[in-house]
């Protein structure tokens, strides 16, 4: 399937989830993340949930990161350049919603991209070799391309992978893992 068809399919599937299902599945994803061998790292980039899109609720991941005393990095998007600016999440961070209902930091301490060690990546769909489909603007592909090669990229999804995505481009950055409520997919091997 191509990216457009996959976007439509998974937006529809997510729209059919109840609030309770989203919460239960998101909590299961957060608990499964604890099985990953990533917790020795310090700087974790986390996307903030767009509730209107029925995304994975990352509040549970945020609680884990805070409990483990990690440095949490959140982004602000520039829709003219399609670039993200990364800010350290602190007690003083103020947020506002942009026109796409994304909570973004107003300002704060900028974190250079080379500091980021783990990225939790939003997605609509992904395939069995780690290609992902987002909303189509390319923010995360641009951001991930600037990260160090050893930066760990973890997708979060309510669903299992597609066999493959037909129209992957050279600028698409593959995931290292995708975590679902029931599975950790490591791209090379899968843990059920």
TrEMBL record:
GO molecular function: 5-formyltetrahydrofolate cyclo-ligase activity
Domain of life per record: Bacteria
Family per similarity comment: Belongs to the 5-formyltetrahydrofolate cyclo-ligase family.
Protein's organism: Flavobacterium aureirubrum
EC id: 6.3.3.2
Reactions catalysed according to its record: (6S)-5-formyl-5,6,7,8-tetrahydrofolate + ATP = (6R)-5,10-methenyltetrahydrofolate + ADP + phosphate
InterPro entries: FTHF_cligase, FTHF_cligase-like_sf, NagB/RpiA_transferase-like
Keyword Thylakoid in record: no
Keywords associated with the record: ATP-binding, Ligase, Magnesium, Metal-binding, Nucleotide-binding
Cofactor: Mg(2+)
UniProt-recorded name of the protein: 5-formyltetrahydrofolate cyclo-ligase
């Amino acid at each position: 399937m191509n990216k457009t068809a996959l976007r439509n399919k998974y937006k529809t599937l997510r729209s059919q989830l109840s609030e309770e299902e989203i919460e239960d599945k998101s909590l299961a994803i957060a608990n499964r993340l604890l099985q990953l061998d990533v917790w020795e790292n310090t700087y974790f980039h986390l996307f903030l949930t767009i509730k209107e899109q029925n995304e994975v609720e990352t509040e549970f991941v945020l609680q884990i990161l805070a409990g483990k005393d990690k440095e949490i990095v959140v982004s602000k998007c520039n829709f003219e350049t399609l670039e993200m600016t990364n800010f350290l999440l602190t007690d003083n961070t103020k947020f506002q919603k942009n026109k796409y209902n994304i909570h973004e930091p107003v300002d704060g301490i900028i974190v250079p991209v080379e500091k980021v060690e783990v990225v939790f990546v939003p997605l609509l769909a992904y395939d069995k070799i780690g290609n992902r489909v987002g909303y189509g603007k390319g923010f995360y592909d641009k951001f991930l391309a600037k990260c160090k090669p050893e930066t760990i990229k973890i997708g979060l999804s309510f669903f299992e992978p597609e066999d493959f995505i037909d129209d992957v481009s050279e600028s698409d950055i593959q995931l290292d893992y995708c975590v679902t409520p029931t599975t950790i997919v490591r791209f090379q091997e899968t843990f059920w």
